[in-house]
Design brief:
The chain is built from 11 helices and 14 strands. By secondary structure, it is of the alpha/beta class.
């Protein structure tokens, strides 16, 4: 690999950043493609890494970077649609174009970050669009164009969105009405995920495969929220909501309250457990990692509050 080129899409993201750090030393050159090059400064410090601006909806803005690329990784994804970005465009149309252009440019391996339960017939638009892309990728692989799809449950690590987002929310509210409290998750540590991605690039072990990828333990949504409260010593009353109230909360957050904290599409995704009995398993538990960054962040805030006389 030392004479090869890696091009990675969605460069400013949580998983992409981890992958660039992990993989850069295996390659001669790493091209990080992003819509926000300012957000990719942290990876630019690596000597063989360059960051390039592109537009996912404009094929010619990225085709030139695929020339002489050996491995492509796609980490582009959204959790919610906006007026500018639909699941169909971001999760399917972009992937379809990227696969086609990668093949045309003789890319050897295409690694794609999908999601657990992705399925064209899945309950939510998020899962359907991810599933449609997975199908398209798999239908295009052959001995020359190898593909590897990873389908993770929640991914955790210092910059994750799950634990950090809920920690930030719980700090400021005394009562938390929790939708879909019994939905199950199997969080995978971002460094474990990155090791599997690295192995899939350095070996042929996962060629032309689609792999569920989860952590060593399963937790309900309620258990994860209570875990955050316990390690940060935050006082907040969690009120588990039943199916109807969960749906009503999602309805309110979709159509009335701004910010898309929890949409109807998110609610639909949570109707299937985010766990897997088969597939790849990381070894690292949340208990080994999450306290190191959540309690640190809360302590920092405590210091600010103390300084401010609160
Ligand atoms: N984190 C998890 O728990 C988790 C779980 C299951 C699946 N996944 C999947 O894994 C992939 C990476 O996740 P992540 O946690 O690293 O997500 P992330 O931090 O949000 O990164 C995704 C990246 O996609 C790009 N992007 C976002 N909206 C876009 C749009 N409208 N058009 C084009 N590019 C856009 C952005 O990169 P630039 O701004 O740099 O262009 C963004 O940084 C995603 O496909 C996600 O669905 C993640």
């Amino acid at each position: 690999m030392k004479d090869k080129i890696l091009t990675i899409f969605g460069g400013s993201g949580f998983i992409a950043s981890e992958l660039v750090y992990k993989l850069s030393e295996n390659f001669k050159e790493v091209r990080v493609l992003s819509r926000n090059i300012e957000e990719c400064k942290h990876v630019k410090v690596l000597k063989n890494v360059d960051v390039f601006l592109y537009d996912a909806s404009n094929i010619s803005s990225y085709t030139k970077y695929l020339k002489d690329t050996d491995v492509v990784i796609n980490t582009v994804g959204i959790l919610n649609e906006s007026s500018k970005s639909t699941f169909e465009d971001v999760h399917f149309n972009f992937v379809k174009n990227l696969v086609n252009k990668s093949r045309e440019n003789n890319v050897e391996k295409f690694v794609h970050l999908s999601a657990l339960n992705a399925d064209q017939k899945g309950p939510s638009l998020y899962l359907q669009s991810k599933g449609k892309a997975d199908e398209y990728i798999s239908s295009n692989n052959d001995g020359k164009f190898k593909t590897v799809v990873f389908r993770p449950s929640i991914v955790f690590g210092e910059k994750d969105s799950f634990f950090n987002r809920f920690n930030n929310l719980l700090k400021y509210i005394p009562i938390f009405p929790l939708a879909c409290p019994e939905s199950m998750f199997s969080p995978i540590y971002v460094k474990d995920l990155s090791s599997f991605v690295e192995e899939s690039i350095l070996t042929d072990k996962y060629d032309n495969q689609s792999n569920d990828i989860t952590g060593p333990k399963n937790y309900s949504f309620k258990e994860l929220i209570k875990y955050i409260l316990s390690i940060t010593k935050t006082k907040c009353m969690v009120i588990p909501l039943n199916y109807t109230l969960s749906y009503l909360q999602a309805f309110a957050f979709t159509y009335i309250v701004p910010g898309k904290i929890f949409t109807i599409d998110n609610f639909k995704s949570l109707q299937i457990d985010n766990i897997s009995t088969t597939g790849l398993k990381g070894k690292t538990t949340i208990e080994e990692i999450v306290p190191s960054y959540l309690s640190k962040k809360n302590n920092k805030l405590d210091i600010y509050r103390k300084d401010a006389g609160r």
